[in-house]
Each structure stands twice: as C-alpha cells, then as structure tokens.
Amino acid sequence: MAYHASDNCTAGSKDLYKFYFSVMITEFILALPLNLSVIYLFIFKLKFWKSKSNNIFLFNLVLADILLLICLPVRAYYFQRGERRSNNNTVCKSVLFMLFLNRGASIAFLTIISINRYFSVVHPGIKNPFKIRKRNILISVLVWVVLLPLTIPSMLTSFECCNSNETEETPGDTIAENATTITFRELVFFTPVLIPSIILVYCTIRITNRLKEKTVGDRTKLRRAVFLVTLVVLVFVFCFWPSAISRLVLLMFRVQGLPKEEEIAVQVYDGLMCLSYLDCLLDPMVYCLSSTKFKHVYMSTYLPFLMKGRHMEHH
C-alpha cells in the first residue's frame, strides 16, 4: 500500500500544532459554557418538546455542538504532544467518528432551519411541512439515524493516520474494498457541504427577492429571515468550506504523487478543521434569529440588566 503524508500521525511542525492546540482550547473554553447555557434553556425553560416546532431543530443543533465540543480536548491533547491524532487506533477512530457525525448533524439542522424559514416567508400560503411538531421529532431522529451509517466509513480503513495495525491486510480483495470505502468516505465528506450550500444560496436569493417585492406591511419578519439565512451561509463559507477546499487540494496532491506538497496540505487542512469548530460559537446567533422567544428568555435569564435598560427606554 502506498505511503501518504496524511497517514502519518506525527505533526510536520510541532510549533504550528501547538498553536492549533491553543485555538481549540480557546474555542472549547468559550463555546462549552455558552452551549450548556443554551441547552439548559431549551430543556428547562422553553421545554422544546412542547414549544413551537422550530425549537426541536434548534435543540438538535445545540446537541450536535455539545457532542462535538466533548471531542475537542482529546484532539487538542494530541496536538500539544506534536501528534495529529492518537496512535491508539480505537481512540483515533472514535474521535473522528464523533467529529464527522456531529459536523454532519450541524450542517443538516442548519439547512433544515433555513428551509423552514424559507417556507414561512416565501410560501406563506403553502402548508409548511416543518410546522407539525411530531413530524419534526421524527425528522430529527431520522437525521441522526441516517448520519450514523454514513459516518462509519471513517472507521473502516486507514484515514487521517488512523491505521489498522491490529489486523493484517491481504493485498487481493482488500485493495478494491478499501478503494470503494475511501471513495464513499470522500463523497460523504464533500456532499454534506456542497448540496446544503446550493440549497442555502437558493433560499437566500428567494427570501431577499421577497423582501424587495414587499413594499407595504410588516417587513420585520422578512428582514429577520434574510439575516438568518445569510448568517447560515456565512457559517458555511467561514467554517465548512475552507476545510472542504483544503481537503480537495490535499487529495489532488495525493493523486499526483507529491508527498512534500501533501505534507503541507495536511497541516493546512488540520488548521482549517480547527477553524470549522467555530460554528459552535456562531450557532447561538442562529438561535436568536430563529426564535424571538429564545432571545427574550436567554437575555432575561442570563443578562437581566440589559432587559431592564430596554424597559427603561420604552417607558
């Protein structure tokens, strides 16, 4: 089997990976209490399973963020040691499985929230398929169930230096099987970014056009919808697209057989994957734009002094 730079667990530049370590720890320290405070509100204040249907998707989004955050200290620990991943095969693949599962869940629920808002403001006359609470619970469960088998290919063959050293590989049918698994894995990596991005751009254009067309009446709901889908697009552009593009470049260098370039691409890819975890900090802005009730409850619970200032202004 050919050697690839991305199969090596040792960091090319230990100083660079120590910087990545500090970035991930900072993300973890800032995002964990924020997301815990959000999930507390959804469970104990908003009782998301009883409240309006959109809160079900928002709850699943924050759940995906918290599960992803749990993996960050593990990754950061090995970066600090000058290693890209754990040399323990089980730990390495388990962390990758969790990271890709929750990345996929974040993308799926961000897209669903945007489509929900699109139906509400662009097609108010059509029955919104996301307005039925029981159906949304079923959709949320289905998203997680579908993502589970789609994430498994990251654990089946050597990937991102997770090497199956415990079992001997036979050169015959394993090569073809590995090639199929690798192709499927890369499709699973890129498709959740590409297809939702097309959907989000379409929703953004349609909602923006709807805002321009509406010359009379209440435009506040439309403006909030425009801000919401624009923010989700920015999350994709800032958090998910850089890592996807860098992985594409990495694969191109691998196919062309350029080990030095691939080694640099691996380090860039790892850094941009660290950047992708920033969506855990940006998602709470999505909650505020998706639900005015959530925004009010959050501020009255954690920032009551700001609410007092607003009441004074109104009086």
UniProtKB/TrEMBL annotation:
A GO term for molecular function: G protein-coupled receptor activity
Source species taxonomy: Eukaryota, Metazoa, Chordata, Craniata, Vertebrata
PROSITE patterns: G_PROTEIN_RECEP_F1_1, G_PROTEIN_RECEP_F1_2
Location relative to the cell: Membrane
InterPro entries, per database record: GPCR_Rhodpsn (IPR000276), GPCR_Rhodpsn_7TM (IPR017452), HCARs (IPR051893)
Record's bilayer topology term: Multi-pass membrane protein
Organism of origin: Hemibagrus guttatus
Transmembrane portions of the chain: 20-44, 56-75, 95-115, 136-156, 187-205, 225-244
Pfam families the UniProt entry points to: 7tm_1
GO terms for cellular component: membrane
Family, similarity comment: Belongs to the G-protein coupled receptor 1 family.
Keywords associated with the record: G-protein coupled receptor, Membrane, Receptor, Transducer, Transmembrane, Transmembrane helix
Protein name: G-protein coupled receptors family 1 profile domain-containing protein
All residue ranges annotated as the G-protein coupled receptors family 1 profile domain in the record: 34-287
